[in-house]
Amino acid sequence: MYNSNFLNINDLSLNQLQLLLDLAREFRKGKQIQLKRPVFSANLFFENSTRTHSSFQMAEKKLGINLIDINPTTSSVQKGETLSDTVKTLQAIGVDLMVIRHHETGWYHSLNNDKKITASLINGGDGSGQHPSQSLLDLLTIYDEFNGFANLTIGIVGDLAHSRVARSNAEILHRLGVRVLFGGPQKWYPKEFDAYGEFMAVDDLIKEVDVLMLLRVQLERLTHEAVDSFTAQNYHTEFGLTLQRYHTMKKRAIIMHPAPVNRDVEIASELVEVPQARIFKQMENGVYARMAIITSILDAKGLIKELPVYA
Ligand code: CP
Question: Atom of ligand 1 at shortest distance to CA of 48?
Fold first, then answer.
């Protein structure tokens, strides 16, 4: 029913996705699982993280998993060890499951094809590629709000080219039948997104959407020239959620952002915690979504004594 790795949200069938959403909601209601034997996990974050790292840790602890403390910045990665050798080392000492965030887009492809790697891999974000656990928590947040995905229009606005969140969400939302709109600087609009939705001026998009997903400008992925020519104030005025634009949104529309938020760039600071904003709710949902992801993997590996009953 489930897969033993979690690398790309679009590897899931819509049926598997629904099961994960149901499972996440069960965990939110307090459901617990029983493991057949002690399970060990390691979280390898080669890029900075607050939410993904800490909420995977919280999910692992809540599921009774033993965490192996490893930090790539103080590990033998610094002596030139490859990612594959680090993964095989941790597997050799008995780690069952690894959450990996890495700057290389698609880092997981070669590891996924390596038959010697039997430990389960979870993609905690690969470069500008995918961020599947973020997608699941975003979908959970939308599902809770609208009781499904039917008849929704969702706008994704910002630095689309460098955003793994946009890339993960665009395709899965399209598969769910959502009308997807894209906005932001045209120079950061990837042409392949035409397959999932429509590019639109931000002022028009904001009036149409039920969900506004804002993105951070990923300065760390831009060239020096692009960073030098970037002005927060200009970006905010041209593409950000200003107070003026906020007042043109539908009454029931919600505001989402994967965070970290750059206040007064993609969103006016005073709008980060307005009643329509779900930014901190997304973070809360992240723990339950990640408990569901890990549980689905443990189930695929036959490590769960008793799987929670679905709602
Ligand atoms: N949304 C997200 O991935 O946040 P972090 O980079 O803090 O993990």
Answer: 6
Task: Look at ligand 1, atom 3, and give the residue with the nearest C-alpha.
Answer: 52
* Index of the ligand 1 atom closest to the CA of residue 125: 3
| Angle CA 54–142–153, to nearest 5 | 135
What is the rounded distance in angstroms from the CA atom of residue 91 to the CA atom of residue 93? 5
- For the segment 166-204, what is each residue's pLDDT rounded down to a tens digit? 999 999 999 999 999 999 999 999 999 999 999 999 999
Residue ranges of domains in the chain, CATH in brackets: 9-130+286-306 (3.40.50.1370), 132-282 (3.40.50.1370)
Residue-wise pLDDT for 195-252, tens only, equals 999 999 999 999 999 999 999 998 888 888 888 888 999 999 999 999 999 999 999 9
* Pocket residues: Cβ below 6 A from ligand 1: 49-53, 125, 134, 258-260
